[in-house]
Amino acid sequence: MKKITFLFIIVSILGCTKREKNTNIDTSIALVYRNQVVQNKKDHQFREVKKAVIVPRLDGNMDDPIWKEVTWYGLDQRWLGSPYEFNDFFGRYKMAWTPEALYLLVEIKDDILYDQNKDPLTLWWDDDCVEIFIDADNSGGNHQYSNNAFAYHVALDGNVVDLGEDKKPLLYNNHVTTRRVTHNDVSVWEFEIVVYDHTYKEGQINDPVILTNGLKLGFAVAYNDNDGSVERENFIGSVFIPGEEKNLGWINADVFGTIILKE
Fold first, then answer.
1. For 61-71, how does the pLDDT look when each residue is reduced to its tens digit (9 = 90+)?
2. Which of 67, 131, 179, 201 could lock onto 58 through a cystine, CB 3.0 to 4.6 A?
3. What is the rounded radius of gyration, in angstroms, for the C-alpha atoms of the chain?
4. Is 251 exposed, middle or buried (0-12, 13-18, 19+ CB in 10 A)?
5. Euclidean distance between CA atoms 233 and 194, whole angstroms
6. Architecture per CATH, 44-262
7. Which is it for strands 257-262 and 46-50: parallel, antiparallel or unpaired?
8. Neighbours of 241 (CB within 10 A)
9. Domain regions of the chain by residue span
10. Are the C-beta atoms of residues 98 and 87 closer than 8 Å to each other?
11. 81 touches 88 (CB < 8 A)
């Protein structure tokens, strides 16, 4: 009797949700399942991110006080492509935060910067770009066509692309602001990332996440490297992904590392 009563209560609640919000039982079950993923996602590559007292300037100079205080991390995990030499690619990054945004400093040594697709929404992953992965509640799980997490592709011209809930590429230039300064074969990128969670809806008014001490987020960063080919030649990330298939970040937030914000 207890099992039957419990099942009846669940069905009744889902039925009310369907009538009141014009949703369906499948959607409600999907939300329940997503909440379970929050509890099951395993933290890995756990790193603390320090709060910036003075907001970094997006100027590509690396001379802000916070960048002198925090540690460089390697961008050194080959997710796609053949082994490469140091003169072809080297990458590293630093992070900081304020209540309004995450700040990311990326230094890339790349002897050829290549942008073959002038339309930012065409084959954006095959051009040189920095890719930033953000999961606001560190829940993990599938985000390919949802806002459970974001995979921001930041092009050489500053355009920011990810797949929307309609399965089409969208510009998210209001989520990520960047400045890149290149001298010879070294580029310094500075990013300001306004964080949104799974409630984000394109075309609506959305409140960003207010970042606080102790908050955990899923995070990874990667670089798509193309020296003149039709398709990208390498995809180098910040997080070790076990197994043969490593190009998973744009689909599954479980592979993101975990950052915790500290004052």
1. 999 999 999 99
2. 179
3. 20
4. middle
5. 30
6. Sandwich (2.60)
7. parallel
8. 19
9. 2-38, 44-262
10. no
11. no
* Burial label, 18 (beta-carbon count in 10 A; 0-12, 13-18, 19+): middle
**Low-confidence winner among 40-44, 218-222, 232-236 (lowest mean pLDDT):** 40-44
Helix (H, G, I), strand (E, B) or coil at 125: helix
Q: Which residues pair with 178 in a beta bridge?
A: 191
Q: Is 158 left (phi over 0), alpha (psi -120 to 50) or beta?
A: left
- In the block, residue with structure tokens 């230094």: 107
Residue type, 8: F
Angstrom distance (rounded) from CA 244 to CA 162: 24
Element housing 185 (H / E): none
pLDDT tens-digit profile of 218-229?
999 999 999 999
Token output for 201: 């809806």
Residue 201 · residue 148 · CB < 8 Å: no
What is the pairing mode between strands 234-237 and 216-225?
antiparallel
